[in-house]
Amino acid sequence: MTDRADEIIKALRSGLDDLTALVRGFTADDLARRSGASEWDVSQVLSHLGSGAEIFLAAIDGAVEGTGTPEMDVIKGIWARWDAMSRSERAEHFVTANEALVRRFEELDRSAKDDLRIELWFPAPPVDVAGLAGMRLSEFAYHTWDIEVVSDPAATLTPQAVALLLDQAGGLIGFTGRAGGLDGQATLAVRVTSPERSFGLDVRDSVSLTDAPGTPDGVLTAPAEWWLRLIAGRHAPEHTPAEVSLESGTVTLDDLRRVFPGF
């Protein structure tokens, strides 16, 4: 039976293969275009994904070999090396760095997937392979969208990633949500499709997911992939499909965009 770690690793492989095919066709002008991550051009997104792949790989190797997570000096050195690359070098090395990481995930045996605990390079408890792979899938899926939306304003997250990322959205909301973006407090019912889920969004002193409320202040209905893009700040009106609706007398979609300013 395939478990969550296996499913996430398969999604990472599929996402990498698709993005690699796109990147290999990029021209110098393509790499210089402003990405969906507004402060970065396309090559800088690839740099971020490439340096991140090296850091994730070092964390896995540290757990397997018992040497621990990479020190901050090592991480800063990785960032500096990628920052110094030309745009074309970033595109080239993005492929090799991410291929090495995904192959490392794929090569882990059943025992490692079940029992390995991996120290992170920031303050947080160690995670298992599924947890680490889920972190990487979130990062990879959103930044893939940042690249694809440059040429396709209607770009979406892949269905394979969406089904997996929905299950870990609560943790992301704790990081991205800004309760101060809403003038007041509200609890919304959220109904997403493809796949279908129903739950609550509570915006008070903090932002969190809840069980579906019985008497909500409004009802947000949206494709699941747009809901995920909303909480990650990839929600501009020009990238919002027509089927997104918010029935509320007090909260608007622009209010929710301020609650989730992005990263």
TrEMBL record:
Record flagged with keyword Isomerase: yes
InterPro entries: DinB/YfiT-like, Maleyloyr_isom, MDMPI_metal-binding
Gene3D superfamilies: dinb family like domain
Keywords: Isomerase
One GO MF term attached to the UniProt entry: isomerase activity
Record flagged with keyword Amino-acid biosynthesis: no
Domain Mycothiol-dependent maleylpyruvate isomerase metal-binding intervals: 13-148
Protein name: Maleylpyruvate isomerase family mycothiol-dependent enzyme
